[in-house]
Amino acid sequence: MLQLCRWEGEWPRCPPREASLETIQRELTAFARRARATAARMHPELSLVSYTILAHVAEQQGCRATDLATHYLLDKSTVSRQVAALERLGFIERRVDPADHRVQVLHLAQRGTEILAAARENRRGAFEERLAGWAPADLEQFAGCLVRYNADAAQHP
């Protein structure tokens, strides 16, 4: 069965797979826009970029700035500016790597741990509210699809 799909401003007929891919692209774009727009409301001191950096540093239990650049596919200077801002706010701190004293490792400072926990709680509350009417099986399927998508995306950046 052919469905309508948007392609360069026109509405041609396309196979279901193409229509699904178009829908996925449109919806993920809307999701990203909404995430950026609501990040400041979730926690005024923590932008979406800052939140993701802090979350990664916490998950890794410390990492180098170059690890962040590699993980997020960003230029080192971009990461350096973000890290400097987070240091100024007292959210992260640099520590000498015990295995190699030439290397500095980023860790969450106490204030970073607190603000990340508060932001996570706010974000979780927002998800709880948005998904309150979803059946447990739908939530499980959605979670599984997101995990699968992100794993595939990591393999094919």
Give an account of the 3D structure.
This protein is an alpha+beta fold. Helices cover 65% and strands 12% of the residues. The chain contains six helices and four strands; from the N terminus they run ββααααββαα. The strands form two sheets. Strands 1-2 form a two-stranded antiparallel ribbon. Strands 3-4 form a two-stranded antiparallel ribbon. A hairpin with an 8-residue loop joins strand 1 and strand 2. The longest helix is centred in the N-terminal third of the chain and has 27 residues. It is globular. The two termini are 31 Å apart. The N terminus is likely disordered.
At a glance:
65% of the residues lie in helices and 12% in strands.
Mean model confidence by pLDDT? 86
Cα(first) to Cα(last) distance is 31 Å
Number of strands: 4
- Derived structural class: alpha+beta
Radius of gyration: 19 Å
Secondary-structure element order, N to C: EEHHHHEEHH
Please estimate the helix content: 55-70%
Query: What's the total helix number?
Result: 6
Name the poorly predicted regions.
Answer: 1-7
Largest sheet: 2 strands, antiparallel
Give the overall silhouette. Answer: globular
Fraction of residues in β-strands: 5-15%
Strand order of the largest sheet: 1-2
